[in-house]
Design a protein that fits this description.
The complex is a heterodimer of chains A (113) and B (499). Chain A is mostly helical. Chain A has three helices and no strands. Chain A has helices spanning 2-20, 25-45, 66-97. Chain A is elongated, with a radius of gyration of 19 Å. Chain A starts with a helix and ends in a 16-residue tail after the last helix. Chain B is an all-alpha fold. Chain B has helices at 7-21, 27-52, 77-97, 108-124, 128-146, 152-183, 188-197, 203-219, 228-235, 238-244, 247-262, 268-294, 298-319, 322-352, 369-384, 390-401, 408-434, 448-466, 468-483, 485-493; strands at residues 58-61, 72-75. In chain B, strands 1-2 form a two-stranded antiparallel ribbon. Chain B is globular, with a radius of gyration of 22 Å. The chains are: A mainly alpha (113), B mainly alpha (499). The A-B interface holds A 20, 25, 28, 32, 35-36, 38-39, 42-43, 45-47, 67-68, 71, 74-75, 78-79, 81-82, 85-86, 89-90, 92-93, 96-97, 102-104 and B 129, 133, 136, 140, 143, 147, 150-152, 155-156, 158-160, 162-163, 166-167, 169-170, 173-174, 176-178, 180-181.
């Protein structure tokens, strides 16, 4: 399970970083949200991966750590809000700058394929 | 428990919610409410400084959970000092904003208060995850404030700022996850105890410490993560830019807190970071100086001056001794207030220069040359660090703190950065006020009340000079408190004083 989680986090981070480095705002927004998914998965793993165990200490047997779950919930809410903000901002930038390049350059013909 | 600790969070938070409901109300009502809430922070901050100056570390346990399980707010000398600087700066920038800037968008006042919640919370919290949450609050408010009003350049700078900071937030979470996995706690005091007991070559802790350095370096605009700052500050409105003068200091505060409390240089991970800090400081200073020289507008000059000051502060922190940290804290109060004042002054100057704005090229003369020119001279002298003002004292303290031998680089770079700032600010001043090419002044002058916040903020340089004795005594006591983290951890982790 640990290996699977590690591979999932790695793939998400790689895709996220690649997309964040793109030149247009939409891939950047997608990249940021992939990156935040990776972080959320990673936070889950910090409390050690166990399945089917109660998040209550002292019950005997294995327990799941509830704290990372609370952290992940907070992180999800924040990253959701931030993603919504970035998309709104990207739309406004498209309207005001007349292009969806992150540095606001006008589209050149060859970049339009 | 000392309930005053939570007041700097509750006052702006309540005001922010109330102002959201008052959006449809009259502008006068909103301004009064917002001003009252901000002004209330000032006596509150003074009270907290007086309490902290007794040397005791106060902790406030939310929900009265026994430590280290609950979330704590912690007040020590450092937090109190930053709360006071924030309160002064916020009052002045809000006073400047009510001359029209707050009318350019609908939600200026709630966002302004929310930004104060984030700032005060970041300075008070004693929990790393809470620090992340308050960072996000302050970032979200600052995103919206930076984009307040419209403009192509503003949108572009705002987009860069948002994307860079969101990536930074994700890295912060990764660092927190690593710390939790390695130490099993996120309360700063508890972390300090456990990291000190951990083996010096713990790889997870090393990674976490270096990631935290990257994240806080991004917030503090340290090289090479400083490129979001000049564009953003130069394109924001005057009052917003003035408030943002404290934002890079949040990053430096977090850096100082984490790398004195959790990862002091005596721990393995802290040692690795401490070795990096002086070099980062010198690079930041050098890059800032080049930026100051290359700027084509007054706002951009001041924005790059913020980068220079981040380098100065980091140089003090990087020295890692009592005198260095004390000098950095004195310089922090000075540079935050003076930079804020200069941003507000730039707004007044550029309004009176008509279409030329703050660009450094010949244009119409300003309507009130004596007053604006005098204030500019005062601000420029303080910012460049010429005698007799506080910038000079801060620099002398910093240079004296450098141990003899092996610090020639620090002297050379700090003094060169000061010279470059002097050249750039005098060139900017002579262009703005004297190269008028026989044109006549356009438009009217500003009302006397509009000068009040500028006078207060730039006057702070004079006050800090006159009161340099008591202020440095306070900053030295602060540095001593920071360098003895046992007092902090002891105060937070004891289970005493329960009713």
């Amino acid at each position: 399970m640990a290996a699977l989680a590690a591979v999932a986090v790695a793939v998400l981070v790689a895709c996220g970083v690649y997309l964040v480095l793109r030149g247009r705002t939409f891939p950047v927004a997608i990249g940021l949200s992939l990156f935040s998914y990776a972080v959320n998965l990673f936070l889950f793993a910090t409390g050690r991966l166990v399945s089917g165990a109660p998040p209550i200490a002292g019950s005997g047997g294995p327990t799941a750590d509830p704290l990372p779950q609370a952290l992940v919930l907070t992180a999800i809410v924040i990253s959701f809000g931030m993603t919504a903000f970035v998309i709104t901002l990207a739309l406004r930038a498209q309207g005001e700058l007349g292009s969806d390049q992150v540095d606001g350059r006008a589209d050149t013909p060859e970049e339009e394929r | 428990m000392n309930h005053w600790l939570i007041a700097p969070l509750l006052v702006p938070l309540t005001a922010s919610v109330a102002l959201l409901f008052a959006t449809g109300g009259s502008p006068a009502l909103r301004r009064t409410l917002s001003l009252a809430a901000t002004a209330a922070l000032l006596p509150l901050a003074i009270l907290l400084v007086l309490q902290a100056d007794s040397g005791a570390v106060c902790s406030y346990r939310l929900g009265d959970w026994p430590p280290p399980f609950g979330i704590v707010l912690v007040l020590d000398r450092l937090s109190a000092l930053l709360l006071l600087v924030t309160a002064v700066l916020a009052c002045c920038s809000l006073l400047a904003a009510i001359h029209g800037e707050d009318r350019r968008g609908r939600h200026f006042h709630p966002l302004f208060q929310l930004q104060l919640v984030g700032l005060n919370g970041a300075f008070l919290t004693g929990d790393l995850f809470n620090l992340f949450v308050f960072f996000e609050i302050l970032l979200l408010a600052s995103f919206a404030l930076a984009l307040h009003g419209h403009g192509r350049e503003r949108t572009r700078a705002g987009l860069h700022y948002t994307v860079v900071n969101l990536a930074g937030s994700s890295l912060f979470l990764v660092a927190l996850g690593l710390l939790y996995a390695a130490a099993g706690t996120l309360t700063m005091a508890d972390l300090a105890v456990r990291v000190a007991a951990a083996p010096a070559d713990d790889l997870l802790l090393h990674t976490a410490a270096l990631l935290l350095l990257v994240v806080f370096g991004l917030k503090a605009a340290l090289l090479p993560l400083h490129l979001w700052l000049p564009g953003l500050y130069a394109e924001s409105g005057g009052a917003v830019a003035a408030l943002f003068a404290i934002m890079t200091k949040v990053g430096l505060y977090a850096l100082l807190r984490v790398f004195t409390l959790i990862f002091p240089a005596s721990t393995g991970a802290g040692g690795a970071v401490a070795a990096l800090l002086p070099w980062l400081a010198l690079l930041t200073l050098a890059a800032g100086a080049v930026g100051v020289l290359g700027s084509r507008g007054l706002r951009l000059v001041i924005a790059w001056q913020v980068v220079v000051s981040a380098g100065m502060l980091l140089a003090g922190i990087g020295l890692g001794n009592l005198a260095g940290i004390s000098a950095a804290l004195y310089y922090l109060a000075h540079t935050t207030l003076v930079t804020g004042g200069l941003f507000l002054l730039t707004e007044l100057i550029s309004t009176q220069r008509g279409t030329t704005g703050d660009r450094l090229e010949p244009g119409p003369p300003v309507r009130q040359p004596t007053l604006l020119g005098g204030l500019y001279l005062l601000g420029a002298m303080a910012a460049a660090g010429t005698p007799p003002l506080s910038g000079f004292i801060g620099k002398v303290l910093l240079l004296r703190a450098a141990p003899a031998g092996g610090t020639a680089w620090l002297w050379a770079v700090v003094l060169t950065a000061g010279l470059v700032a002097l050249v750039a600010l005098s060139r900017a001043g002579s262009t703005l006020f004297w190269k008028t090419e026989g044109l006549r002044a356009e438009g009217g002058g500003a009302r006397p009340l509009a000068f009040a916040p500028v006078v207060v903020l730039l006057g702070a340089a004079v006050v800090l000079t006159v009161c340099a004795g008591p202020v440095t005594r306070y900053t030295e006591a602060t540095a001593a408190q920071l360098l003895a983290p046992a007092g902090y951890t002891g105060a937070v982790l004891t289970r005493e004083d329960r009713p």
